[in-house]
Amino acid sequence: MARVRRLELAEALALGPSWRHACHALLYAPDPGLLFGRIPLRYAVLMQMRFDGRLGFPGGFVNTRDGSLEDGLNRELDEELGEAAAAFRVERADYRSSHAGPGQQVVAHFYAKRLTLEQLTAVEIGAPRAKDHGLEVLGLVRVPLYTLRDGVGGLPAFLENSFIGAAREQLLEALQDLGLLASGSVAGLKISAPH
């Protein structure tokens, strides 16, 4: 992500009216499950397949004149995830970072919201009935937070997919900062976050 700069939230909100704001959220929940009865899942983390074939997080452009960033993000989540998104609300306390890209006057705000596994599963089940399903969103996917014995399967293979904008870096930074990976799981992964 060359030439992307990290901004403090207050700095991002003080940008002029020609700037657009996009808000996205990583939704995650503790998951006690085991893959093949032996590989701990630890957490379920949701991403989505977008209309352009890239992976990203639920959310989108918001209009700060119509309310807070979080108000706009929660409207986007309702459109993209459906009714189950009403069971929770992304708040300012869930805010993680803001980044401005080169050339375009767009600031990307990123949030991480911890849910219960029941809430997250309800989102997955209800998403195909959401307003934007099949249009902006082609489906949800869980991020594999493990590495198989071959050293490739799981998270390393997942990271080879095509991601939109800063989504890959946001994912890696959040996994590390929130402690969602087992210790040692980040070894060898490119975790460099944009600053």
TrEMBL record:
Enzyme class: hydrolase
Cofactor dependence: Co(2+)
InterPro entries for the chain: NUDIX_hydrolase-like_dom_sf (IPR015797), NUDIX_hydrolase_dom (IPR000086), NudT16 (IPR054754)
Enzyme Commission designation: 3.6.1.64
Catalytic reaction list: dIDP + H2O = dIMP + phosphate + H(+); IDP + H2O = IMP + phosphate + H(+); a 5'-end (N(7)-methyl 5'-triphosphoguanosine)-ribonucleoside in mRNA + H2O = N(7)-methyl-GDP + a 5'-end phospho-ribonucleoside in mRNA + 2 H(+)
PROSITE patterns, alphabetized: NUDIX
Nucleus in keyword set: yes
Keywords recorded for this protein, A-Z: Nucleotide metabolism, Nucleus, RNA-binding
Residue intervals of the Nudix hydrolase domain: 18-173
Compartment(s): Nucleus, Nucleolus; Nucleus, Nucleoplasm
PANTHER family membership: NUDIX T16 FAMILY MEMBER (PTHR31699), U8 SNORNA-DECAPPING ENZYME (PTHR31699:SF5)
Family membership noted in the UniProt record: Belongs to the Nudix hydrolase family. NUDT16 subfamily.
Protein name: U8 snoRNA-decapping enzyme
Organism name: Ceratotherium simum simum (Southern white rhinoceros)
